[in-house]
Write a structure and sequence with these properties.
This protein is an alpha/beta fold and 268 residues long. Helix content is 43%, strand content 15%.
Length: 268
């Protein structure tokens, strides 16, 4: 967006300061790679993920099967790919996917208003406005409620250094679907559906397949109906895999890793 690009550029101009650090903690392998690309010594870089312990854990099998619910979490700016997501929803609907509702959550004051209007107009053109809701800013309780009723997180972002909403969605029993951009492949860990950035047609087909799979899976928790990047899974398999994976981002786990890093730094 017009606001975020200058901020990112200013941040990158300060990267030379990190070349003098004895140790650097990056919150993802993607950000570690950026540091190396800007001349930082890879031997001084360690990855230390962010703590993500919200929303409260919820299971996919405990959600209503009708209607299928999708949530988008983020600012409405071109870099977050919201328009691509709306286009993909239209393609999925036109291809006969089960009906789905999309809730868009994000601070509209920090969004691109022209882009918001473009997204709203496109939803109208595709006949989706009854199924697409711009929720604006949501407090913690409202966001948790949206996550808990959603079956999928739509996140066709073009750049992510970490991506907290992916872990939030997996905690809440949502399947992330979007683009293989930035840290997305790392953070999703095969527990979602990702396609090449900018390939809206592929995103639409992927969304259709996921909605079809969800429709079948929610009526049969034991069969592998979910078409995930890690392989086809049942609802119960997805729930167990997501539950195990998100433990990596718990306060206790990151606290232990932080103490290890501090101990290593103190011995330098």
């Amino acid at each position: 967006s017009k606001h975020s690009v200058p901020l990112i550029e200013r941040s990158f101009r300060q990267l030379h300061n990190l070349k003098h650090a004895d140790c650097i903690w990056a919150d993802s392998q993607t950000n570690a790679d950026v540091l190396v690309a800007h001349g930082c010594n890879p031997d001084k870089i360690s990855t230390l993920p962010l703590v993500v312990e919200t929303p409260q854990a919820h299971a996919l099998q405990d959600k209503s099967s009708s209607p299928l619910e999708i949530v988008f979490v983020g600012r409405a700016v071109p870099a977050k790919g919201l328009l691509d997501g709306i286009e993909a929803l239209g393609l999925a609907a036109a291809a006969g996917a089960p009906p789905a509702r999309l809730s868009i959550v994000g601070n509209l004051d920090f969004s691109d208003q022209t882009y918001v209007e473009k997204c709203q107009a496109r939803a109208d053109q595709l006949g989706l406005r009854a199924n697409v809701t711009f929720c604006g800013t949501a407090d913690d309780d409202a966001l948790q409620s949206l996550y808990h009723k959603a079956h999928a997180l739509l996140i066709p972002t073009y750049h992510e250094g970490f991506c907290v909403p992916v872990i939030e969605s997996l905690r809440a029993g949502c399947i992330p679907i979007g683009y293989q951009a930035g840290n997305m492949s790392n953070i999703v860990n095969g527990l979602g559906c990702l396609v090449a950035p900018g390939d809206v047609k592929a995103l639409g087909e992927c969304l259709k397949q996921l909605l079809v799979g969800l429709d079948a899976a929610l009526g049969d928790h034991e069969s592998p109906h979910l078409p995930l990047d890690q392989g086809s899974m049942s609802v119960r398999q997805f729930t167990e895999a997501a539950k195990s994976y998100v433990k990596n981002f718990s306060h206790a786990n990151i606290e232990a890793e932080t103490l290890q890093h501090l101990s290593s730094a103190a011995s330098l």
